[in-house]
C-alpha cells in the first residue's frame, strides 16, 4: 500500500482502502479481511488506528467482528457500501468539487478529456 497523505486522518484512509477492497471484489462477501495486526504491520501504524478504521465499517453495517476469528465482509456489503459511498460523495465531496470547478471556470469537455484520452489509449 502506498503512503498516507496529510489531508485526512490515517484511520479514514485505511477505511477507504478496506472499502475499495470490498467494492472491487478483492475480498468477497463472507470472506475475512486482513487482520488488524497484519494491516498495522504492513502500514507501520498503531493497531488502534486500524481498529478504528474497521469500527467505521462495522458502524455502517458492511463488516462484522467474529470473536477470535477476525473481521468478515457481511452478505450484501458491496451493494450497501456502494450506496453509502455514493451518498457520501454526493453530499460531502461533490459540492466542494463542483464549487472548485465553477471557480476555475472549467467546462465539461475539459473535465472529461482525461477520461476520454485514457479510453483511447487503452484501446490502442
Structural features, described:
With 124 residues, this protein is mainly alpha-helical. The protein has two domains: 10-76, Winged helix-like DNA-binding domain superfamily/Winged helix DNA-binding domain (Arc Repressor Mutant, subunit A); 78-122. The chain has helices at 10-24, 36-43, 47-59, 77-103, 108-122; strands at residues 63-66, 70-73. The protein has a two-stranded antiparallel sheet. Strand 1 and strand 2 (70-73) form a beta hairpin. Helix 1 (10-24) packs across helix 3 (47-59) and helix 2 (36-43) crosses helix 3. The longest helix is centred in the last third of the chain and has 27 residues, at 77-103. The chain is elongated, with a radius of gyration of 18 Å. 15% of the residues are buried. The mean pLDDT is 90.
- The N- to C-terminal Cα distance equals 29 Å
What CATH first level of the largest domain would be assigned? Mainly Alpha
- As laid out across the biggest beta sheet, the strand order is 1-2
Radius of gyration: 18 Å
Secondary-structure element sequence? HHHEEHH
Percentage of residues in strands: 5-15%
CATH architecture of the largest domain: Orthogonal Bundle
C-alpha geometry:
elongated
Q: Major sheet, described briefly?
A: 2 strands, antiparallel
CATH superfamily of the largest domain: Winged helix-like DNA-binding domain superfamily/Winged helix DNA-binding domain
The total strand number stands at 2
Rounded mean pLDDT score:
90
